[in-house]
Amino acid sequence: MHELIHSIEITASPKAIFPLVSSPEGLAQWWAEDITPVDGGAELAFFDRKTVYRLRSLTLIAPASAAWLCETGNEWEGTRLIFSLMPKGVKTELGLRHEGWKEITAYYVSCNTTWGALLWRLKAAAEGKKPGPKFSRGGLASS
Hints:
Blueprint: E1 2-10, H1 14-22, H2 24-27, E2 34-38, E3 41-46, E4 51-61, E5 65-70, E6 80-88, E7 91-101, H3 106-126
Antiparallel strand pairs: 1-7, 2-3, 3-4, 4-5, 5-6, 6-7
């Protein structure tokens, strides 16, 4: 199995960041505009609902970690998203592991790039800049 690993330092406490990675409402602030809470998780829709990922919450340990199981998606199904938050003085190191990929494909590589952009948006949201979600209902946000 393969995994994508990212890390970013955020000038905010784990307590302030945790809601952004542990709830549908939090994910909507930086990831995708079209998010629907569902029992035990969230549905994230992209490109006018041509792609829909259903995430089920696996573990929430406030304010240290949040893990999601991807239940749908061609290459995402069965993968796990694990966000970890480690305090570093007035900052927090946010780690992301997207694990359980069956193979390295062009889509895997594209997702790696996209996660990098998403974490910068998450950082901005946590630091109070209100960037909005990376994905609008119809595609990518303009900025």
